[in-house]
From TrEMBL, chains A, B:
GO BP terms, alphabetized: negative regulation of DNA-templated transcription
Molecular functions per Gene Ontology: DNA-binding transcription factor activity; transcription cis-regulatory region binding
Domain HTH tetR-type span(s) in chain numbering: 8-68
Organism phylogeny: Bacteria, Bacillati, Actinomycetota, Actinomycetes, Kitasatosporales
Keywords: DNA-binding, Transcription, Transcription regulation
Keyword Transcription regulation on entry: yes
Protein's organism: Streptomyces minutiscleroticus
SUPFAM superfamilies documented for this protein: Homeodomain-like, Tetracyclin repressor-like, C-terminal domain
DNA-binding listed as a keyword: yes
Protein name as annotated: TetR family transcriptional regulator
Length: 200, 200
DNA sequence: CAGTGTGGTTAGCGGTCGTTAACCTTAGCC
DNA sequence: GGCTAAGGTTAACGACCGCTAACCACACTG
C-alpha cells in the first residue's frame, strides 16, 4: 500500500473542488470559471489539466465507483468464511466513505446521467458489481431472503447510509464516531427486519 | 374532501412533466422548450401559465413539502394516543409518497438550492416541521433515544424510504405492495436498532 | 545562454437558454 | 357581429457558458 503524505497535485485539488461544487449546485449549475476560482486559477487554465468539464465529472464518478468496488472486494476477501463479519465490514467501509467523502457520495447517484455513453456504462457496471457484492454477502447471512428483496434491501440501506449529506449544519448532531456507530446499528437492524416474515 | 375525477388542467400537466424532467436531468439540465414539448406546446407558451422556469420548481417543491407536512399532521392526529401507531402511520404515508410520486421525492432533496431565497426558506421550514413530527413520534416510542440521535435516525430512514427512485428498471424487483411492506419492515427495524445500547 | 515544456493569462467565438415582443386564432358574451 | 380574454405561435434579444486561440512567464536542461 502506498500511503501518500505528499501535497496534493493541482489535478487533485481541482477534482476535490469540482466534486464539492458539483455536489452543492449540480453539474450544470457550476461554471468552469468557478471551479478555476476555487483553486486559485481562472477559467480556461483548467484545460491544461483536463480535456473538459465532462472529463472532470467522468474521472470523479469512475474513481468513486472503482474505490468502492475494490475496497468492497478487499473487505470480502479479508473476512471470507465469516458471513456476518463480511457484511459488517462492507457496512463499515461504506459508512467511512459516506462520512469522509460526502460530495462524492452525493455525485455518485445524482449526476450519473450527465456522462458520455461509454463512461456511464463503465460506472454503471462498477456500481452493479458493488451491489452484487452486497447482495451475495446479505444472502449468506439471511438465506431466506429472495434475491429481488435482497437487492431492494441493499439499495435501501445505501440510501440510509448515504443520508448523511442531507443533514443540516452540525451541532444538533452526533459526532463522527457516534454517527458511524448509529448508522451501523441501523443498517444491521434494517437488514434483519428485511428478512423477517420472509421464510426466515 | 374533494376527490377530483375531472381531467387535469394544462397547468397540472405542465407541473407533472416538469417534475419528471427535472428529476431525470436536473433543473439546469432541462430547457423550457423540452418542458413545452412534453405537453404538446412549444417553448414560450409556458409563460401563459407560469412566471418562469423558477416558478415551476418553486411550486413543485412548496407543494410537496406542504403535502408531506399536512399529511403527516393528519396521521399524527388520527392515531394520537398510540405512539406505535403514529410512527407506523407516518412510515406508511411516506412510503406511499415515495412509491407513487418518485420524481417529486427526488426533487425534494436535490434541487432545493435552486430556489429563490424566500421560497427556499419556506420549503426548509416546512421540511423542518415535518422532521420534527417524526422526531417527536420516534421519541415517544423510544424514550431512551437522545434527540440528536433521533434526528439523525429520522434522516437516515428518509434516505432508506426515498431510495426507491434509484432502483433500475423494474423486473428484478418486488411489486409495489411487497416493496411497501419490505420498506416498512426495514424502517421499523432501523428505528429499533437506533435505540439499542443507547440507554434502552 | 538559447531552447523547450509546463502552466498560467486574457480575448473572443459559437451555441444555448430563459425570456420578451408581436402577432394570431378561437370561444364566449353583450 | 364586433370585443375581449385565453392560449397559443414565431422571431429575436441578451446573457451566459464551454472552449479555443494566442500569448506569456518561468524552470530546467544541454
Amino acid at each position: 500500500m502506498t500511503t501518500r503524505t505528499d501535497a496534493p497535485t493541482r489535478r487533485e485539488q481541482i477534482l476535490r473542488e469540482a466534486a464539492r461544487l458539483f455536489a452543492e449546485r449540480g453539474f450544470h449549475g457550476v461554471g468552469v470559471d468557478e471551479i478555476g476560482a476555487a483553486v486559485g486559477i481562472s477559467g480556461p487554465g483548467l484545460y491544461r489539466h483536463f480535456a473538459g468539464k465532462d472529463a472532470m465529472l467522468a474521472e470523479l464518478l469512475v474513481g468513486i465507483s472503482e474505490r468502492l468496488l475494490t475496497g468492497g472486494r478487499r473487505r470480502v476477501a479479508e473476512a471470507a468464511g465469516d458471513p456476518e463479519a463480511v457484511l459488517d465490514s462492507l457496512v463499515e467501509g461504506h459508512i467511512d466513505f459516506a462520512l469522509d467523502d460526502r460530495p462524492l457520495i452525493t455525485l455518485h447517484d445524482r449526476e450519473l446521467d450527465r456522462l458520455r455513453d461509454s463512461d456511464r456504462k463503465l460506472v454503471r457496471q462498477l456500481q452493479r458489481q458493488y451491489v452484487e457484492l452486497w447482495v451475495a454477502a446479505l444472502r449468506e447471512v439471511r438465506p431466506g431472503l429472495p434475491e429481488p428483496s435482497a437487492r431492494a434491501a441493499v439499495h435501501a440501506v445505501f440510501g440510509l447510509l448515504n443520508s448523511t449529506p442531507h443533514l443540516g449544519r452540525p451541532g444538533a448532531l452526533p459526532g463522527r464516531t457516534a454517527m458511524a456507530a448509529l448508522l451501523h446499528r441501523m443498517a444491521r437492524g434494517a437488514f434483519a427486519a428485511a428478512a423477517e416474515g420472509q421464510g426466515e
